[in-house]
Amino acid sequence: MIKNLQILPKITIALVVAVFFVSCKSKKIISDTSSNGKKLNTRTLVKNHYANTLDFKTLRGRLKIDYTDGSDSQGYTVSFRMEKDKAIWLSATLGVVKAYITPTRVSFYNRLQNEYFDGDFTYLSNLLGTDLDYQKVQNLLLGESLFDLRKEKYNTVEHNNQYQLSPKKANELFMTLLQIEPNNYKVAGMQLTQPQKSRVLDVQYKEYQQIDKKLVPNIIDIYVKDKEKENTIELTFKNIELNKSFKLPYKIPTGFKEIVLE
To answer: Rounded to two decimals, what is the model's pTM?
Structure first.
């Protein structure tokens, strides 16, 4: 990995996992996760989870990012735009750093260092320690399961007033745990681990907010561990507008040096 990437990959990964669906109107914070004694079987739980899938065409807003790697802590506020299922556009500090993400492309550039990266999701997968694609990133940001829960059988137990789902068929190389809030069937947390590689991805949805009668994440905590490296990212979403017309201007400046990742 190139040493002089500095904060650029940190911003990029934080921004990519920070796109979400929300509106600036009628904002209400939701924090109650009590099950109120409700008991559901796995099939009904999965059905209710997918019944709450969010739908939109475009969004734009601002994102507050707090990042720490154990020795260094930094905070940023960036602008972002998203066209669902098509593209994510991100801009920090008057366009000094920009990122553009599509289902087949991960690209960013830094005017301070005259560098750019233009590749695929392999880069983000290596940073997070788990395979990613565009759909998984969207689900992560919307409080929905990274994996299709309808394609595998799961065990469901109640724990700490939440429903916990784990695959019935154990995978020695890859372990997953999904926590579902019982009142709205959104994801409360998810953990993906690869024990043999000492990799952990832990995502916690600290708060949901009610926007036009729909629930969307308000604050997301992301913890990433890969052998000796540990990174924590807190994402707070602000001033979001839905279904507005906008452009996604992105062009790598000429003369910039390409970042080659090992």
So the answer is: 0.76
